[in-house]
Every structure is written in structure tokens, then in C-alpha cells.
Amino acid sequence: MNIKVSAKVFVFWVLLTSLGWAQKGKSTTMSLVENPKPSKVVNIVDSTDYNKAKIIFNKLVSARGDLRLPVPKFEMTGTSNWVAYMDYDAGEIAIENKAYDVTASFGDNQDAAIAFLLGHELTHYYEKHAWKKGFASEYRDLDIGMKIDTTQDDVANETQADYLGGFLAYTAGYGIFDKGPELIAALYKKYNLPDKLKKYPSLSDRQKITSRTRDKIKDLVRVFELANMLTVTANFTAASRCYEYILKTYQSREIYNNLGTAILLDAMQYFTVTELKYAYPIQLDLSTNAQNGLANIRTKQIREALLRFESALSLDPDYLPAYLNKACAYALLGDTSRARFYCSIEARQRAEQKSDSLTLGKIEVLEGILEAQAGREDNARKLFEQSASRGNFIALSNLNTINKQPPPVLSEGRATAKTEKIDNLSLQSLIAENRFPNLKSTPIESGINCNVVDGAWAGSFVLMYEQDDATTYFLATKPGYAMATAKGIKLGAGIKDVTSQYGDPKSSILTPNGLIIAYSSLLFIFDSNNKLKQWMIYKTT
After folding, report:
1. Average pLDDT, stretch 464-493?
2. Which terminus of the chain has a smaller tally of CB atoms within 10 A, N or C?
């Protein structure tokens, strides 16, 4: 039997006055606010408010990166009925202009507030929460229908939408929205709703639920940030476990791609220096400690990485990073025909369509490697030179290799008489004294924890990846931290400011929110405008 899924899932289930089913034309919808005099739906287009909200919506869709379902239409309406909603019949997500006006009262946090509302609705869509409601409506006269259509299920769906929607907003670059309870209160006031609604939690309970969900989002973000830090510091196995933990809850093309990248980089330690004559565009650290007799291990890991890249492409068949990473993986396997196909056709065509010079430089690096391996060194040299002209440092390294010259000198690790500290704290001293009060732990799997120590110091906190007897520590600055590094770098500095003082980094990774560059004991995290937003001291014991 074909079941027609026809329900509206709205952002604040606590706004419901009843869980009645109302007829709206031929479409059965789940109404949120039973307005006795509902306003006529009038879509608002081409206004400043609409355009701003649509940009945020598009960023959220892009961050999710799941094209297995059609992208919903975005609308802004002039109604005062629903706050924000997902209309499955129309295939659209809408926010009311009245709710948008409420978000404007949050000033610099307005974009995050809008992302909070729209991320919630997109989660309903991608997690297919409407299916159960549609099924229940078709069979509501039967016991199974009544069991499925329960308030408990509504609570579970809405809590999940808050949770995953909040993480989606974070991955789209809007950070963690800390003012959810205040936003809910402001919406209640604007929509003139009573604090207590029949059959549903009170306003205060809804605010408490939102606060607890926010804490869960922070836990997931902590694991995600640790995964990125562990990748850039070459702790690839640990990073893989963190990404796998996230994928149990939240699936996106980026997480699958990052997991595949971490596995692929881990496999590269099993190659000899001779086998890795050239630097690959996915490589973070050019050093290797390969051992003989480990070809089977590396082949198994590379094939596992390929599966992760396939998972990313199953969500978005046009996801460029996964094509380039697949090409690198096949090149490492010695499958040059597939490597050329994914590099020079799949990846190159997409990069050229987007005029993506940065990625084209990486493609030229891999094409140069393939040409060099085929004995066409003149062609390889030209490709490396073209990539180097785009500012690709790996290409410079490969040019020196093919020209039989020493590699370009990295000035990383310039000496300084000062010890790096944050909040006048030395990470080495904290570890020696085991001074980590109020530690909060998120178990990843048996014997592995992601920990945080926050609130003990005014301008800093500590992240830890703990496994058996080994722990990696990151002492990090908080937003607004005013003090400088040992070499005078403060938050807001540019990438060139950092490299002029500390030299070229030994590795880097691009995250949804900006670039991370790594030195032997320091990490610098930049925002999307390439301004320093955080720095860390790290150490593994």
C-alpha cells in the first residue's frame, strides 16, 4: 500500500494547543497553533529579511550535504501561526516573518538564532520524522496507529531535531547557539502564548529541555573538534574513532570524507620513503616511519578509506573533496587508470566548473605524480610548476624532488626563550600536577574517552583524548582571550602574522569553520575570514 506522508513538523512542539488533525485543502496537516482566526498564507520574497534567511538556509543544506532527497524549497510567510515549519506535501520549509523579527532582537546572534530554527526543521526532513506521523494518520483507528502516534514520539522527534539541528548549525559555521531558552521565551511572548499548554510541557520545562540538548550538542562538538585536532597532529587512529562515534548519530558527506582521509593518512605510515617519493595533496605530514612487510595492512586501510569516500559521494555525487581523495587512494594502491579517472575527469571537471583554483592546484599535484611515475618527468615538472604558481607548497616540495634538489626549508620551530602559556598556565605543569578539576567525560568506546575541563580558568579550557595509558592534551583559549602567545600573536591575527613569527606549519587541515595549522606543540585555528579565533598548546603522554 502506498502511504501518503502528509504532515507539518514545526520547530516548537510546546506551542501546540492540541494535537488535532486539521484539513487544509486536500492535505492533512498537523497544526501547531489552533488559531481561531488564522491569517492567510502570504509568501514574502525578494525582501532583505527573506534573502538573509535564505542564505542561512542554503548554508545549512550545503553543510548537511545529503542529496539523496530533493532539497526543500525555502519560504518566508507573513502568517502568525506556526513560527517555522516543514510542509511535506509542498516540499518546503518556511519561517514566519514574525519569528524572524524575534531573532533580530538577538543582535550579533541573529544568524545563529535563525540557523537554530531552520536547522531544526531540516533535521525533521532529513530524519524522515513525518513518515511515522503519516503512517499513524492512515491507521489511527487501529491499535498500532494509536501506539505510534504518541506524545512520547513527538518529544523524541523534537529533541532529536533540536540536537542534530544544533550540530548542523555548528557545522555550517554558526557556532553553538547558547540562547535557545531565551529565544523560546521571546517567541512565547511575541506569539502571546500562555506558559502552560494542555498536554505539553510548560515554558520552563521546554527551556530546560533546550538547555540540556544544548549540553549534548556541546558534547558532540567536542568530539568533532578533537577529531580535527587529532587529524592535524597526526593521531589518525584516534581521529578515526572520533569520526566513527559521530557517524553513529549524525551522517554527512564531510564526516565520511574526514574519516576516510584519517584512515588513508594512517595507511601512509606503512609506505617506505622510496615508495612515497612525492608528497600527495592529502598528506598532512611528509615524514614516515614505514616498516617492511606491512603492505597488507596499508592496502586494507586504503580500501577502507575508499568505502568512506564512497559513502560521502552517496550523499552528494558532486562532492569534490571525495573525488580527489579517491584518486589519491587509487594512486597509492598503484591503480593509475582509476586514479587518473577520478583526478583528471571527475575532480578536474568539477573544480573547473567552480573555478576552484585551490583544488585545481591539488589536482595538478596528483597529475604530476602520476606523470612522474609514468616516466614523463617533463610533463610532471610543468604540472608541479602550475600548481606552485597557485601557491601550493606541496608542489614546491615535489618540484625539488623531481629536480633532485633539497626540499624547501620549513622555518617551523623558531627558538624562543619564553614558554608558551595560556592564562599563565603551562600545559606541562598541568599534566605533571594532574590539575584538571571538574573533568567531564564523553565515552567513545570501551577504554576511550573524550574529556573536557572547563570553568576552572577564566580564559582557557582543556580537551583530552584518553586511551588506556596514553592521553593527548589540548590547552585552548576561549573566545575573547586577550593575552598573546610567547611571540606576541593575539586573537584576530592573520595567517601571515602567525607564519612570520612561527614559520611554515608542519601540517594543516581545512574544517567547516576555517583553517587549522599545526606546529610541534602549537595549533592555530582560523575563522572563515582567515582571522585567528583560537590557539592551543598540545602534548601527548
Report:
1. 95
2. N
